[in-house]
Amino acid sequence: MNPTLETERLLLRPWRDTDADDALGIYGDEEVTRWLTPAMAWVPDVQTMRDVLRRWQTEDVVPASHWAVERRDTGQIVGGAALVHLAPWKDLEIAWHLGRRSWGHGYATEAGNALTRWAMHRGGVDEVFALIGPDNTRAAATAQRIGMEWLGETDDYHHRRLELYRVRHQDLTYFDYDTEVTEQENR
Q: Cα–Cα distance between 122 and 169 in angstroms, integer?
């Protein structure tokens, strides 16, 4: 099971069945999922969302996993984040998905930084990729704030042209990992 990661403002924790309503507020919003298609399609109802959450809970193998992104001060779920393997290669893609009301607060950057550093420091990963639609300027700016470099366009993944970003372990701005991102055991 994936660990819970704690940052200054956020908890990145495993999704629970009881999160289905909150998750549907994110993945049931076509304005959010239009940026995620085809990797993550629009979710039409709470039962389908429960099925997706259960699949994530059972299919994830560390370091590839899905996390709920929760505000520490309120317990409100503001989004989701993931590290997933890109088929047919074993490249690791990072993704962040925030509810519309949570756009523009820096949560995607904070969650992306936490996941990237966790994957490299604890997950044994040397590089992480992001695939971003050509018109998704918000996601491209987030990738750059995480420290990712633009590698160009690709159609190697998801059968569509996407912008490819990458960050390598040696590219990270170093800091004391243990004081910035706290990893908790899940019970």
A: 12
